[in-house]
Structures are given as C-alpha cells and as structure tokens.
Predict the 3D structure of the following.
Amino acid sequence: MENQAADVVLATRTAFNQAAALAVTYGFSILGAVVLLVGGWIISGVLSRSVYRVISKIHGIDETLARFFQNLLHYGLLILVFVTVLGQFGVQTASIIAALGAAGLAIGLALQGTLQNIAAGIMLLVLRPFRVGEYIETGNVKGFIREIGLFATEMNTTDGLYLMAPNSTLWNTPIVNHSREPSRRQELSIAIGNDVDVRTAKQAVLSIVSSDKRVKKQPTPRVFSDDLTSDKTVLKIEYWANTREWSETRYDIIDHLKSGLVEEGIAIK
C-alpha cells in the first residue's frame, strides 16, 4: 500500500512538473495569441469602419458597395490575424496560405457564374448606369429599378410584375435609361389629305403643340412633311418635354390635335 501511495504521489508530481513546463513553454505563446486575436479583432473593426466612412462619402458610391468593401477588409484582416496566431505555435503558415489559395481557386471555379454577377454588380454600383426608381430597357428586360444588389438587380415591370435580373446579364448588354436625362424628345406623325393646304395645317399643328405649357420652348417644336403619297401628306411633329411628364404630355397632345384640327376643318387621314 505504501509503495502504491508513493507511486501515485510520484506520478502526480511528474504530471504537475510537465504541466508547469508546458505552461512556461507555451504560456507566452498563448498570451501572445490572445493579444493578437483581441487586438486584430479591434483593429480590423476600426479600419473597416473607417474605410466604410471614407468610401460612403465618395459621390456616386452606393451603400451596398461601401458595406461590401467594409466586410471584405474586415474578414480579410481576421484571416491574416488567424494565420499569424497559428505561426505563434510553430505551424507552417506557408502551407496554410497555399491551402487557402487552392481552396479559393476551387471555390472560384465552382462559383464562376456567381462571381461574374458580383463583379458585374460592383461595376454597376460604381459606374451607376441606372439608379433606383429609374426606368431602363435592355435587349432582354425592361422595367423600373427597385434595388441593385451584388448578385442581381430587382425590378418592377410596367404592368406591376416583379423581375430579378442577374447583374452579369445587365452589365454585358447595352442599357437604355429612359429616366436619366431631365428632358426627352417626342415624335408624333399625323396624316392629312392632299386637298388640305400643308402650310395651314403645319401652323395649326404647331400652334396646338406649342400651347401646351409642358412642351419645352427650347429646342423649339417643329412640324415638317415626312412622307407623301397620292392621297395624303404625313406630317412629323417633334417637341421636347420633361422626362417625368413625357408620357402624359404625349397622350394629351394627341387628344388636343384631334379636337383642334377638327375645329380648324382639317381632316385627318
């Protein structure tokens, strides 16, 4: 019994001595690792927030894009801190970096389409060919912009339908923005009989169009003969109006032309 008790005491003392030796050996490494983790977390947070504030103040930079760069810097610094901490314990960081690079390449190949959408989303947010609320038209889609994300752009069609378009499809095609410019030109055509005096008809049409207060004085509206057949002359009407009132102005002027020309005794073909 005495020998067993002595063996237990000896084993306990040996374990304690080994634990003390390990604590002395790795204590500073553990302390340094904790300091690096805490300090790295704080510094990455401060730097990422500072970058967000700087980027968000740049004219034309979207909130989504500023947040993206903030998170990219934040998590990139955290990965760097984690690799540095592993180096404190003698881990070969070169192999870890190589593994991360290989993993990143594999993920990039697997998510090639998604990464294309992200890259396109960044370019759309930086160059801003369209903004929220504007009406755009491409070869495949058209509608009012609802939200511009990193992966896709959400839209509403004119008939109230929800539409989501991948950013890569919008970036790789010509975009017609119907809302960007403050004013737009409108074109209308009207046909009159050849028995009507063309000069009189032009003056009547120009008077009706110019009387609408929404029609721009500059550039001045104009009416000209655009086509001629054996029984009719086609008059082309061009005028400029505010973009927001462009459609309603067109509808009203068509009504005014119909009623006004009838009053002038000018028949419309």
